[in-house]
Each structure stands twice: as structure tokens, then as C-alpha cells.
From TrEMBL, chain A:
Residues 751-864 form the Clathrin adaptor alpha/beta/gamma-adaptin appendage Ig-like subdomain domain. Adaptor protein complex 2 (AP-2) is a heterotetramer composed of two large adaptins (alpha-type subunit AP2A1 or AP2A2 and beta-type subunit AP2B1), a medium adaptin (mu-type subunit AP2M1) and a small adaptin (sigma-type subunit AP2S1). Residues 624-661 are annotated as: Disordered. This is AP-2 complex subunit alpha. It comes from Betta splendens (Siamese fighting fish). It is found in: Cell membrane; Membrane, Coated pit. PANTHER family: ADAPTIN, ALPHA/GAMMA/EPSILON. Keywords: Cell membrane, Coated pit, Endocytosis, Membrane, Protein transport, Transport. InterPro entries: Adaptor_Complx_Large_Subunit, AP2_complex_asu, ARM-like, ARM-type_fold, Clathrin/coatomer_adapt-like_N, Clathrin_a-adaptin_app_sub_C, Clathrin_a/b/g-adaptin_app_Ig, Clathrin_app_Ig-like_sf. Pfam families: Adaptin_N, Alpha_adaptin_C, Alpha_adaptinC2. It is a peripheral membrane protein. A 1,2-diacyl-sn-glycero-3-phospho-(1D-myo-inositol-3,4,5-trisphosphate) binds at residues 11-12, 43, 53, 57-61.
UniProtKB/TrEMBL annotation, chain B:
Its main location: membrane. It comes from Betta splendens. It is found in: Cytoplasmic vesicle membrane; Golgi apparatus; Membrane, Clathrin-coated pit. PANTHER family: ADAPTOR COMPLEXES SMALL SUBUNIT FAMILY (PTHR11753). This is AP complex subunit sigma. The gene is LOC114853034. PROSITE patterns: CLAT_ADAPTOR_S. Subunit of clathrin-associated adaptor protein complex 1 that plays a role in protein sorting in the late-Golgi/trans-Golgi network (TGN) and/or endosomes. The AP complexes mediate both the recruitment of clathrin to membranes and the recognition of sorting signals within the cytosolic tails of transmembrane cargo molecules.
Length: 983, 171
């Protein structure tokens, strides 16, 4: 093996590096670097041409300086020059510099691409590899444009060296990830798939990564890879530990390739071909058997490699979720690992068991390990392992063990690490609610939660307990008693005061019979906490007080006195002052009846998904998120962690809504339409949705002022009938030659056609426009019928279709001009050919101009071409549906809306609409038969976008929740917008 | 199975090698590096080699004075990544002959070249030790400019911290 000197030693570089290392201070280092930079700059600018060696040395020094963390703004040109050197080491350093430092400098990219092109065509495998490595390292769009069509050819050519094939495969993978639209496998597909059969293990190892990525995006085109992968895997699994020579790693044959093969299979459902499936099951069994064999080596590398394959096999078994026998065996194997002495294995076993817990076949088997897992939560020394144990407890929880698990989690919370407390709190809150048999247990649990970890109890948690108490009258008395007792503690958390204030304000009367908790005792207890609390909590307490005046007239003088004192009525905080003033006035002038109406008990909250669950989902960020999104998530994460500070703001918002009647303050949050911007501006930034993910909903605190508000509300939706007439009217149309702006109702007209293809698009006194359309794949044809309703001829009749803005590049609409004359009572027809190039949001505009009795008519409509028209329905089974649903789990792939029903919620009507949408309506998929799920693929010229839809009606609340998951996030959003108008 | 990036840093927190397989701005890279170095260095020796960090999984292992730290995606296999690290250390060891941190400091470009032969675009390209080293050797044989060849460590006075010159495999 080469000694260190075998490299291309550069003495100057070594000297420079030691100089830097000799520097005693950061300043000295910077000084030395600046000196070097000046030197290199002068060398590069000097008259004397530098030889290749010097250039290489200086470029290498610049690289070193950059890697130390300093900016480098020159030397790129010299590095590019090195690329065309015929000395390998110079070329190599040039490429390294480019790989590390290049940005999309257009001038340079052209030169670099030129050099790469030369090397690719050099037929020198070493040079070709260097060039491919550079493309793979930089992976820019410009490079994809230049080389995406060339590399597949290199990859499959018969005379390409193996090492070049390996680089080409991974290079192509990188380009595919950067610019999938530029990498078109088409004719190469089958030859690429067959690389799985290649003689050279290295080629297979590299190619399979490419095939896996392509299969994820185009499963159908690549599905032949399944049987090839199974037979390759089978050969490896059954080979002796020495058969594969250098591809055997610590007595494990080809561990990397095995893992990649098992990973590739996870892109597909279980093989349909019985023989292939049998062979695969055999492989999986062999892998499970091997785990029981004595190790062939004591080295950790041996066991790691072996277990890496085992865990990947278990992932595949879980992915199939169809072989009960294998699932239970997997679970038993993981059970053994739970007590393994290697921390790594314990960690992974906990992690993997989490997914097993969600399979119906292995849920019970997982549950048998509960004691071990609880023990891990208590005794593991590494917080990451404890976190996994907590996750697993959460996943294995059901009605049978909920009390035990919740109790263990609560007791763990007392000593839990700060880093995981908030998540633990959310989990306890969710489990307590989900598996509550008696709600007094639930109330106890949540109050314990606040007591133990008050700082980590986010507003969702304490709002939720209030929501539940309000909605369940069997627990209200118990809740009042329990909070009253909890408030007795000399120091209790502010969140406890909030819950206490709210609940006593609503239900204090239920415990007022007991002299130990008489109205005045209750009031004094609450008020004793008042001065220690933040402004938002005080605001909440003031509202509780006014509720007290209604519940217990005997407290009125005491409370009025409190409200009247300077510290309230002249409080420097405007919110507190306003409340004090208004409540004082209200209690003085309103009759008992009015007071009772205004301050009536809160009506039940509409049932909906727990906002806590939503929060946990958000926090855990399902699935992988690429690094580029990390920044956003980080911010989000920070916000979540800081949410204990945010809680009061919410209350402030709620408070401000409660005392500042505003037409849009939709207290119950039922109408998702209530716009955030319409809230009082001072509170706008505080307006955070606390009860659901949909429209803003502020809790109305103790004051039931929605009674006031309902009357103040403006009707937000005018009826449809009003809209059809209007500005299209001949008299009011502006006589202009420019296309008129789209009708104000154009959007409503558009919405009418989302779920249907034929009908009357527009009608006024003069003109009726009918529409008929049909769509296939990414193409559509639309027939427009213009009918003259008058007896007078339309002259200079002309229509134009335009695609505004970016729609131009997304949709291609072609048509021929129409006859310029439309006789009275006659109808003319126009055909539009439509091609969908990529997904889009806007609608094309149709402008119509004609003269009627000398007056120019000019109107513009939106053509009902919406993205869903290009759907191909996809039938799939429940299993496949949920598998795909899981695959589309990145947060931005999902769009969700909760909204009020605008139309009939009748099943047949809904079904007809969903079918009209163009997706396949899937039966027997959703466990809840009330729900609807649909699947479809949007066909555009450039790509196919898979879409899954779930619509959950709640007939009682007259609401829907609509969820869309699409492989493209813009599509999810657009479809969600469109559909929310339909139901 | 894509690796997002690989970082090598010393116990003192000095970055020795960085390889990014996803496009990120320099600013983001620096931020991630700072944060991760801090997180990993704060962990105790017997803790597990994996941690959740942001939405990624971090797999790390210490060899003598150097930490090798990889970021992989949620679905990826931790154990096989741990062995990716080990195989890379083996490759360095074989090439430099009992590799130590100093070899990587002074021959950083070689460390990059070896990594490129082994992993490309974040995926294992060639897992055979022989084949990777053969590729690097061939490259070394191609060089003509032998005038300046020297043993780096005999020609230059190198101030070492003892830890930097201890073989990665000796601990």
C-alpha cells in the first residue's frame, strides 16, 4: 500500500498548513491567510505564466483556506484552467475545487461544462470518472441540461468500463433529483433495470440506488425490477460468507447491496407472482433465522452488518403488513434486542417496534413487551433511547393498558429531560382523551399534567380540557371540584389558574352548595392568584368574575368593588381597563334577564379532531424532510418549544375578542371563512387558531358574547342567484375596446364546473354561453356555444382566449376565430383544444366582444378548465391506499380544510360530485364508512401527479374536513381550494 | 438510502472534512456544522450512536481523536450507515498506512478523492475495499510530476497534539 508520500506532495501547501497550525491566535491565523491570499492573487495576476504545478498548488491552498471557513472570491478561473490539463493530478485538483466551490456563475459553468464534455468523450475511464464525479458533486440544473441526455447512454453502453458505469449511475441519480424533468429514461428503462443482473457487484450496488429512486417516481415502468431484485437477494442471502470475496464484509455477504435490495422492494406491494413471492418469503425467513445463529465474529462490524440487513428485512415485512407469521417473528426478534447490551440495538428495536405496533397482526405481540419498555423509560441512561421508549409506549397504548401507560408517562414526566417534556405532555394529553372511559380520570390526568409540567402544557392542551368539560355535563361538577382543590395549593401554575378561572366561571355553581366552596370562597381563591398572573390570565379572570355576578348575585357588590378599584378601571393595560369598565357597566345597568342571556353558559363546542393531535403530528413532522426545509422546520420547532410563552397571547386574543365585538370574531370557529385579516388589527398577530387547524377560532372565555355578535355579523355570502345577473348586463358594460376585467362572479362560475363538464357557463339578457367538454389524459376539448337571445344580430362578434401570467407556460389552449356575425336567435359554436403542460392554478380567460345595436359589449369570463379535469381515476385496495397515503407524508404534500357544508350532505349527491371530480371513489378503504376516499393521477405533459383525497363529513355539525395528499404540493393546495367550494 | 452530508471533526470541534450531498448555502452549512458539532461533542461515550436531529437521523462514531458524523433521512438504515463510516476509515487507514488525524489535515484532498470513489451523491458506489484502493492507486500512478515528492511529515516540522497523530484504529 502506498505510503503517505505516494500522493502528489506539494511542499508549499504542507508548509502553509503547518504555518496555520502554528498560529497562536485567531488574529495571527487571519493575518497569515491574508498574506497568503495576497501572494496567490499577485501570482495569478502576474505577467509570468504559471506552470501547471504552481497553479495546482495555489488552487489547493485556496481550497484549504475555504475549508477553514474563509470566503474565497477568486481562483475559479485558474481552477477551470486546470480541468483541461493533461496531467491527472492537476485535473483532479481542478475538479475538487469546482466541486467544493462552484456556484452558478454562468460564464464559468459554460467553460466547466466544456471541460467535462471533453473528458466524457476522452474514452479514458479515469478522466471520465473524474468528470462524472464532478457532475454528481455539483449537480446543478445547468449541468443537468448539458449532460442529462448523454449519461444514460454511457451507463448502458456495452463497452463502458464497470467503474465508469458505477459513477454514471449515481451521477444520473443526482441529476434526476435536481431536475427530474430533464432526465428521461424512456428507451433506457429496461436496460437500466437489467443492471440488477450485472456480473459486477459494484455496478449493481451503484445502479440499484438509481433504480430505487426512479421506481419511487414511476413504479409501473420499473416494476420488472421486483423479480430481478428478489432473485439477486436470494442469491446473496443463500451464499456462503466467503463466496462474494471482497464484497463480503466481516463474514456478511454484501450487506450494503442486501440493504439496498430490501429497500427497493419497499417501493412495491408484495409480488403478485406466487413463485417470486415464495422465494422472497424464503429470503426473509433465512434472514430471521440467521439472527438466531451464533455470530461468526465477535467484531461489532459483523453484528452491525448482519443486523442492518435484519432491520431492513423487518421494515419490508412491516411494509407488506400481510404476513402475520413474519410480523410476529420480527416482533419476537426485536423483543430480544430490547434487552441487548448494545445501546444501539436497544434504540433501533424500540424504534422499529413502534411501527410494528400499528399493524393489526403484531399489535398484541408488541404489547407483551410493555414491562421491558416501561423499564427502559425509567432506566436507560441515554435520553434518545428514553425518547424511543416513550414513543413506543405511546404507539402500543390501547384501551386495555391506557391507565398503566399514562400513569407511567406521568411519573416519568416529573424527572424527564427538558428536551422531551413538551412532547410527552402532548402524548399524555392525547392518550388520556383517546382512551378515557370515565372523564373524571381524564380531568385528573390533565390537571396532574399541569401540576407536574405546567410550563410545557401548551395552550392546545388546556383549551382541550375546557372544551371537553364544556361538552360533557357528566364531568362538569367533578371538574369544578377538582380545580377548586388544585387551586388551594400555595403555588400553582398559571395554566392551572386559567383552567380554574374558566371552569369555575362556568360551573362554579355546581359546587357552591358546599360552604367550603361557597361563591365568595371561590371568588377569593381566584382573586388571590390575580396579582401574580400575567395580563392575559388577568383578563380571563375578569371575565370569570362577571360570570360570577350572573351565577351568584350575592357576589355582585364584592366583585363590583374589585372592578371599580383604580388598579382595574385605570389599569395601564388597555385590554384590562376596557374589560373592567365594560363589565362594571354591564353589571350595573343590565337587568338580571339580560345579564343571564349575555352570560349564559357556553354552548357545546363542535366535535372535531383534537387540536393536540394535530399539534403532535406537526411537531413530529412525519416522514423525511430534506435539509433544505430544515430552516423552516427549525423555526417552527422553536416556536413550538416556546409555546408556553405563547399561551397567554392566545388568551389575550380571546380576551380582546370577547370585549371588542367585531363582525368577524367567529368565536366558535365554525366558519372557516372568517379571515384573519378582519380581526381587530391590534390582535391580528395574536390570532392563532387554538381549536382546530381550520379557520381562526378563539375561545370565547367565560363571556358568552357570541349572542351579541351574531346580530352584528354581516352576511358573508350573497346568494348565488344574485350573482348571475349584474355587471354582464348590457347597459352597464363599459364601452371599451380593451378586454374587460373578469366578471366579479367569474370565480363562482368557475366553481360550478369543477365537478361537471357540461352546462350553461353564462347568461344575461343578450347572450347565453353553453359549454360541453371532454378530457383524456393531459388533453381536453371544449365546445362553446354562443346563443343570441335577442332578435337582433350581433355584429363584430369576436372571442379571444388568453392564459394570463404563468398559466401561459402551464396550459396550451388553441382555437380558431368564430364567425363575426351571430344572427338573432341563432347559436354559433367554437372548439378549444387544451393541453395541460404542467399543473396550474389559474383559469384561462375568455373575452367576448360584439356590437349589439351599436353599443359595444365586452365581457370576460374564466373558462372552467381546472386541474382536476386531467385526472385519471386510480382504483386501489385499502392496503395500497394507506401505503401511498403514508408515502405522501411530508407536511407540504398535504393540504387540509375544515369547512361548513354549503350544500346538501346527502350521500348520493356527494358521491356524484366526487365522481364528477374525476378521481376513483374507493369503497371499503376508510375504516369509517361515513368517509369518502378517492384516488387519481393528474396527467400533465411533463409529469404525473398522484393524488389521494379523503373527505370526512360530520352531519351533526354540518361540517367537512377535506384532506388532500399529492406528490406535488402545489397540486394539493390548489385541489383543496377548489374542492372546499363544492360541498 | 441517501446520505445528506458527512462531517469529520476533532474532539476540539475543528472541522476536518465536509461533504454535502444536498445543495445548501454556505451560511446554512456553517450553521448546521456548528450545531451538530456541539450536539455530538456533548454526548457521553456510552450513548447510542444515533440521534434524531431536526428531521434527520444523525449517525456518528468516534475514532481516536476524530468524530465521523453522517446525516441520513428518516427511512434510512442506521446500522449500515455506521458501517459506511467504518469502511471509509478502513480505506483511509489502508491508504495512509495506519491513518491519523494529521494525515487527513495535511492530505485533505486525498481524503476527498477516496471518499468520492467510495460514496457518490450520498450513495455507496463501490463497497469493495480492493476496488476503491485500486482506483486511487491508478490515479496516483498517473502523476508524472515526481520532483516534489516528499514525505509530508519528514519534510516539515509539524507541531502535533498527541491525539492528532494517534492512529484512528488504535483506540
Amino acid at each position: 500500500m502506498p505510503a503517505v508520500s505516494k500522493g502528489d506532495g506539494m511542499r508549499g501547501l504542507a508548509v502553509f498548513i503547518s504555518d496555520i497550525r502554528n498560529c497562536k491566535s485567531k488574529e495571527a491565523e487571519i493575518k497569515r491567510i491574508n498574506k497568503e491570499l495576497a501572494n496567490i492573487r499577485s501570482k495569478f495576476k502576474g505577467d509570468k505564466a504559471l506552470d501547471g504545478y504552481s497553479k495546482k498548488k495555489y488552487v489547493c491552498k485556496l481550497l484549504f483556506i475555504f475549508l477553514l471557513g474563509h470566503d474565497i472570491d477568486f481562483g475559479h478561473m485558474e481552477a477551470v484552467n486546470l480541468l483541461s490539463s493533461n496531467k491527472y493530478t492537476e485535473k483532479q485538483i481542478g475538479y475538487l475545487f469546482i466541486s467544493v466551490l462552484v456556484n452558478s456563475n454562468s460564464e464559468l459553468i459554460r467553460l466547466i461544462n466544456n471541460a467535462i464534455k471533453n473528458d466524457l468523450s476522452s474514452r479514458n475511464p479515469t478522466f471520465m470518472c473524474l468528470a462524472l464525479h464532478c457532475i454528481a458533486n455539483v449537480g446543478s440544473r445547468e449541468m443537468a441540461e448539458a449532460f442529462a441526455s448523454e449519461i444514460p447512454r454511457i451507463l448502458v453502453a456495452g463497452d463502458t468500463m464497470d467503474s465508469v458505469k458505477q459513477s454514471a449511475a449515481l451521477c444520473l441519480l443526482r441529476l434526476y433529483k435536481t431536475s427530474p424533468d430533464l432526465v428521461l429514461m424512456g428507451e433506457w428503462t429496461s436496460r437500466v433495470v437489467h443492471l440488477l443482473n450485472d456480473q459486477h457487484m459494484g455496478v449493481v450496488t451503484a445502479a440499484i440506488s438509481l433504480i430505487t429512486c426512479l421506481s419511487q417516481k414511476n413504479p409501473d415502468e420499473f416494476k420488472t425490477c421486483v423479480s430481478l431484485a428478489v432473485s439477486r437477494l436470494s442469491r446473496i442471502v443463500s451464499s456462503a460468507s466467503t463466496d462474494l470475496q471482497d464484497y463480503t464484509y466481516y463474514f456478511v455477504p454484501a450487506p450494503w447491496l442486501s440493504c439496498k435490495l430490501l429497500r427497493l422492494l419497499q417501493c412495491y406491494p408484495p409480488p403478485e407472482d406466487g413463485a417470486v413471492k415464495g422465494r422472497l418469503v424464503e429470503c426473509l425467513e433465512t434472514i430471521l433465522n440467521k439472527a438466531q445463529e451464533p455470530p461468526k465474529s465477535k467484531k461489532v462490524q459483523h453484528s452491525n452488518a448482519k443486523n442492518a440487513i435484519l432491520f431492513e428485512a423487518i421494515s419490508l415485512i412491516i411494509h407488506y403488513d400481510s404476513e402475520p407469521n413474519l410480523l410476529v417473528r420480527a416482533c419476537n426478534q426485536l423483543g430480544q434486542f430490547l434487552q441487548h447490551r448494545e445501546t444501539n440495538l436497544r434504540y433501533l428495536a424500540l424504534e422499529s417496534m413502534c411501527t410494528l405496533a400499528s399493524s393489526e397482526f403484531s399489535h398484541e405481540a408488541v404489547k407483551t413487551h410493555i414491562e421491558t419498555v416501561i423499564n427502559a423509560l425509567k432506566t436507560e441512561r441515554d435520553v434518545s433511547v428514553r425518547q424511543r421508549a416513550a414513543d413506543l409506549l405511546y404507539a402500543m397504548c390501547d384501551r386495555s393498558n391506557a391507565k398503566q401507560i399514562v400513569a407511567e408517562m406521568l411519573s416519568y414526566l416529573e424527572t424527564a429531560d427538558y428536551s422531551i417534556r413538551e412532547e410527552m405532555v402532548l402524548k399524555v394529553a392525547i392518550l388520556a382523551e383517546k382512551y378515557a372511559v370515565d372523564y373524571s380520570w381524564y380531568v385528573d390526568t390533565i390537571l396532574n399534567l399541569i401540576r407536574i409540567a405546567g410550563d410545557y402544557v401548551s395552550e392546545e392542551v388546556w383549551y382541550r380540557v375546557i372544551q371537553i368539560v364544556i361538552n360533557r355535563d357528566d364531568v362538569q361538577g367533578y371538574a369544578a371540584k377538582t380545580v377548586f382543590e388544585a387551586l388551594q395549593a400555595p403555588a400553582c401554575h398559571e395554566n392551572m389558574v386559567k383552567v380554574g378561572g374558566y371552569i369555575l366561571g362556568e360551573f362554579g355553581n355546581l359546587i357552591a352548595g358546599d360552604p367550603r366552596s361557597s361563591p365568595l370562597v371561590q371568588f377569593n381563591l381566584l382573586h388571590s392568584k390575580f396579582h401574580l398572573c400575567s395580563v392575559p390570565t388577568r383578563a380571563l379572570l375578569l371575565s370569570a368574575y362577571i360570570k360570577f355576578i350572573n351565577l351568584f348575585p350575592e357576589t355582585k357588590p364584592t366583585i363590583q368593588e374589585v372592578l371599580r378599584c383604580d388598579s382595574q378601571i385605570r389599569n395601564s393595560d388597555v385590554e384590562l381597563q376596557q374589560r373592567a369598565v365594560e363589565y362594571l357597566k354591564l353589571s350595573s345597568i343590565a337587568s338580571t334577564d339580560v345579564l343571564a342571556t349575555v352570560l349564559e353558559e357556553m354552548p357545546p363546542f363542535p366535535e372535531r379532531e383534537s387540536s393536540i393531535l394535530a399539534k403532535l403530528k406537526k411537531k413530529k413532522g412525519p416522514g423525511a424532510v430534506s435539509v433544505t426545509e430544515l430552516e423552516d422546520n427549525k423555526r417552527e420547532g422553536g416556536e413550538l418549544n416556546g409555546s408556553s410563552d405563547r399561551g397567554p397571547d392566545i388568551a389575550a386574543m380571546a380576551a380582546s375578542n370577547a370585549s371588542t365585538p367585531s363582525p368577524s370574531a367567529d368565536l366558535l370557529g365554525i366558519r372557516s371563512a372568517a379571515p384573519v385579516g378582519a380581526a381587530p388589527t391590534s390582535a391580528g398577530s395574536l390570532l392563532v387558531d387554538v381549536f382546530s387547524e381550520a379557520g381562526p377560532a378563539a375561545p370565547s372565555l367565560a363571556v358568552n358574547d357570541d349572542g351579541f355578535l351574531r346580530d352584528l355579523e354581516q352576511p358573508t355570502e350573497a346568494s348565488d342567484a344574485l350573482l348571475v345577473e349584474g355587471s354582464g348586463d348590457s347597459d352597464s358594460a363599459p364601452p371599451s375596446e380593451d378586454p374587460a376585467a373578469p366578471l366579479s362572479e367569474a370565480d363562482e362560475l368557475l366553481n360550478k364546473f369543477v365537478c361537471k363538464n357540461n352546462g350553461v357557463l353564462f347568461e344575461n339578457q343578450l347572450l347565453q354561453i353553453g359549454i360541453k367538454s371532454e378530457y383524456r389524459q393531459n388533453l381536453g376539448r371544449m365546445y362553446l356555444f354562443y346563443g343570441n337571445k335577442t332578435s337582433v344580430q350581433f355584429a363584430s362578434f369576436s372571442t379571444t382566449v388568453t392564459c394570463p401570467g404563468e398559466l401561459q407556460s402551464q396550459l396550451n389552449v388553441q382555437t380558431k376565430p368564430v364567425e363575426p356575425i351571430v344572427e338573432g336567435g341563432a347559436q354559433i359554436q367554437q372548439v378549444l383544444n387544451i393541453e395541460c403542460l404542467t399543473d396550474f392554478s389559474d383559469a384561462p380567460l375568455l373575452n367576448i366582444k360584439f356590437r349589439y345595436g351599436g353599443a359595444l359589449q365586452n365581457l370576460t369570463l374564466k373558462l372552467p378548465v381546472t386541474i382536476n379535469k386531467f385526472f385519471q381515476p386510480t382504483e386501489m385496495l385499502s392496503h395500497d391506499f394507506f401505503q401511498r397515503w403514508k408515502q405522501l407524508s411530508q407536511p407540504q404534500q398535504e393540504a387540509q380544510k375544515i369547512f361548513k357544508a354549503n350544500h346538501s350532505m346527502d350521500t348520493e349527491v356527494l358521491k356524484a360530485k366526487l365522481l364528477g371530480l374525476g378521481m376513483a371513489l374507493l369503497d371499503n378503504v376508510d375504516p369509517n364508512p361515513e368517509n369518502y376516499v378517492c384516488a387519481g393521477v393528474i396527467q400533465t405533459k411533463g409529469q404525473q401527479v398522484g393524488c389521494l383525497l379523503r373527505l370526512e363529513p360530520n352531519a351533526q355539525a354540518q361540517m367537512y374536513r377535506l384532506t388532500l395528499r399529492c406528490s406535488k404540493d402545489s397540486v394539493s393546495r390548489r385541489l383543496c381550494e377548489l374542492l372546499a367550494q363544492q360541498f | 438510502m441517501t446520505m445528506q452530508f458527512m462531517l469529520l471533526f476533532s474532539r476540539q470541534g475543528k472541522l476536518r472534512l465536509q461533504k454535502w450531498y444536498v445543495p445548501l448555502s454556505d451560511k446554512e452549512k456553517k450553521k448546521i456544522t456548528r450545531e451538530l458539532v456541539q450536539t455530538v461533542l456533548a454526548r457521553k461515550p456510552k450513548m447510542c450512536s444515533f440521534l434524531e436531529w431536526r428531521d434527520l437521523k444523525i449517525v456518528y462514531k468516534r475514532y481516536a481523536s476524530l468524530y465521523f458524523c453522517c446525516a441520513i433521512e428518516d427511512q434510512d438504515n442506521e446500522l449500515i450507515t455506521l458501517e459506511i463510516i467504518h469502511r471509509y476509515v478502513e480505506l483511509l487507514d489502508k491508504y495512509f498506512g495506519s491513518v491519523c488525524e494529521l494525515d487527513i489535515i495535511f492530505n485533505f484532498e486525498k481524503a476527498y478523492f477516496i471518499l468520492d470513489e467510495f460514496l457518490l451523491g450520498g450513495e455507496a458506489q463501490e463497497t469493495s475495499k480492493k476496488n476503491v484502493l485500486k482506483a486511487i492507486e491508478q490515479a496516483d500512478l498517473l502523476q508524472e510530476n515526481l520532483d516534489f515528492q516528499m514525505r509530508l511529515f519528514s519534510g516539515v516540522m509539524v507541531p502535533n497534539m498527541a491525539s492528532e497523530s494517534s492512529g484512528l484504529f488504535q483506540n
